Amino acid sequence: MATRIHPTALIEDTVEIGDGTAVWDNVHIRGPAKIGADCIVGEKTYIAYDVVIADRVKMNARVYICAGVTIETGVMLSAGVTFTNDRFPRATTPDLSELRPSEPDEDTLPTLVREGATIGAGVVVGPGLEIGRFAMIGMGSVVTRSVTDFQLVLGNPARLAGAVCRCGEPVAKRSEDGTIADGETTCHRCGRGYTIESGSVLEHLS
Questions:
Q1: What is the mean pLDDT of residues 138-154?
Q2: Whether the Cβ atoms of residue 82 and residue 89 lie closer than 8 Å to each other
Q3: pLDDT for 152-172, tens place per residue?
Q4: What are the Cα distances from residue 136, in Å, to 43, 78, 118, 160?
Q5: 4-176 adopts what CATH topology?
Q6: pTM score
Q7: Which helix (H) or strand (E) holds 170?
Q8: Which of 25, 74, 90, 94 has its CA 20 to 30 A from that of 162?
Q9: Cα separation, 7 vs 21, whole angstroms
């Protein structure tokens, strides 16, 4: 299937876009960047240079993806998600005599979003983090620490709230001590099984 590019989208030279991907109105993608097959890039989304996005990624409207971000297969980025990449952001040099360059430097930290993860509407993701496989970040959260596989995190700053299945259904809740209790659990929606050990959520592979 051919790519679909809205006439108002600005796609810079050296951008690679896979088959079947749809790029909607007023999107800006800077080159070089790479977007895989069968993705959706929602209206008014900005994708910086050196961003790598795999196949079947869904980006809703007004997503901001800065340089240094890698998105794996099957990720959902809801409306208004914002990534950041600078540990010590300043507009100018210390003496205020000139603007700092926009190119990455030693304070530009990469972020990785693993396959199947969902990042909810209005979430802000801090620099230098990893969002684990099939993790879920609740809407409006501010993520300041990495999130492991299948974890559900909520709030500002985002804190552990439980665990979710591949299908998105919650399979465990946070205990009063702020952890997820060890044990076996099964998703009531799809029947997939998981083992929780010392906070890690391990799926049962058939």
A1: 98
A2: no
A3: 999 999 999 999 999 999 999
A4: 23, 11, 5, 10
A5: UDP N-Acetylglucosamine Acyltransferase; domain 1 (2.160.10)
A6: 0.96
A7: strand 170-173
A8: 74
A9: 15
